[in-house]
Specification:
Blueprint (H helix, E strand, L loop, with lengths): L6 E7 L6 H13 L4 E6 L14 H6 L6 H6 L5 H13 L3 E6 L2 H10 L3 E4 L7 H9 L3 E5 L5 H13 L7 E6 L14 H9 L2 E6 L5 H8 L4 E5 L17 H17 L16 H4 L2 E4 L14 E4 L35
Parallel strand pairs: 1-2, 1-8, 2-3, 4-5, 5-6, 6-7, 7-8
Antiparallel strand pairs: 9-10
Length: about 350
């Protein structure tokens, strides 16, 4: 995974509503937005969810409240052949393909498909067999940490390492799994806690509304940003409401690239190349307030401190006061050391 720039993952997730043609359109929109990756979710519903599993509150709000979680998710399932087609469609549109596996069979399929980065969702951070399998692939891993505490994150990372994935291959995303996440619950500085405790690259999986928290995360050092997007926020389904529309996704990508430029400097406080030309225009220098004859002794009241700044700096005013003029000078004339005794 290229970590020389912020990796932007456009999370299509299940916002295709189980329709592979909608999934292809999502790929096209992610490509148009210039995201680095478009990501889906690969699962066999019955191997992920029991018949008795309840929906999250946001899922109840955004979908048919009478159906079970399994019934809801089953409608969002794509077949393995669909993902083969989606990977080819991504390649056609010059965007890299990812998908998060939610069960062991799906993980093995994605490895066979040639996926080089495995994104572990927050819900699998305590799934030991799943973590062992992903770790055994010895590929790049992005681990989301919604609902987890630091000890759980450390335990998951240890399993990945013990199973064959080096720490240098692991990026950890701070995350909150409420859709949308309240601003008061973002706790963005937890990224630094994770980085300091585990010595890994960090990022943010953003479930807030808007793009400003992603911007803040990049400014704070996030190397990966993941954000849900949709073709239409009004579509039926659990995640559309908390997703970006295509235009907002474009804004996210362009804003992150601007933030990258803004924080890419040396950190040394000095004039930039672009502002050097403004120094003499904006700063001030010493000028004569009135016309004075040869032999006049300069006092503070004889001096104007005005633009431009191409003469003696006001910081040197004490070197001028008390000096005698060698020749006549004129009102508003720039003071020069060569005319002073």
């Amino acid at each position: 995974m290229n970590k020389s720039k912020v990796i932007i993952i456009a999370e299509a997730g299940v916002n295709h509503n189980g329709d592979v043609e909608l999934a292809k359109k999502l790929i096209e929109k992610a490509s148009e937005a210039k995201a680095d990756y478009v990501k889906f979710q690969t699962f066999i519903a019955e191997k992920v969810i029991s018949i008795s599993a309840k929906k999250a509150s946001y899922q109840v709000t955004n979908t048919d409240s009478e159906e079970s979680q399994l019934q809801m998710v089953k409608k969002l399932e794509l077949k393995f052949d669909d993902f083969r087609a989606l990977k080819k469609h991504s390649e056609l549109h010059n965007i890299q393909f990812l998908s998060t596996p939610f069960d062991l069979e799906s993980a093995i399929f994605l490895k066979e498909l040639g996926v080089k980065i495995f994104k572990i969702p927050s819900g699998e951070i305590t799934n030991l067999p799943y973590l062992k399998l992903i770790g055994s692939f010895n590929l790049d891993v992005i681990l989301s940490t919604g609902m987890a505490n630091l000890q759980e994150i450390k335990e998951a990372v240890k399993v990945l390492i013990d199973s064959g994935t080096p720490l240098s291959n692991i990026t950890i995303l701070h995350c909150n799994t409420e859709y949308p996440t309240p601003m008061s619950d973002v706790n963005l500085l937890a990224m630094h806690n994770i980085k300091n405790e585990l010595g890994v690259e960090i990022g943010y999986s953003d479930h807030t509304e808007g793009i400003e928290v992603s911007m803040a995360a990049v400014a704070l050092g996030a190397k990966v940003i993941e954000k849900h997007f949709t073709l239409d926020k009004q579509m039926e389904g659990p995640d559309h409401v908390a997703s970006l529309n295509p235009e907002e996704l474009k804004n996210l990508v362009s804003s992150i690239r601007n933030i990258e430029k803004a924080i890419s400097g040396s950190g040394v406080k000095e004039p930039s190349v672009s502002e050097m030309k403004n120094i003499s225009i904006v700063r001030k220098s010493l000028h004569y307030r009135d016309s004075f004859p040869k032999g006049h002794v300069i006092s503070f009241d004889d001096i104007l401190i005005v633009r431009p700044g191409n003469g003696i700096s006001p910081m040197e005013i004490d070197k001028v006061i008390g000096k005698e003029l060698k020749s006549n000078v004129f009102s508003n004339q720039l003071i020069n050391y060569s005319e002073l005794i």
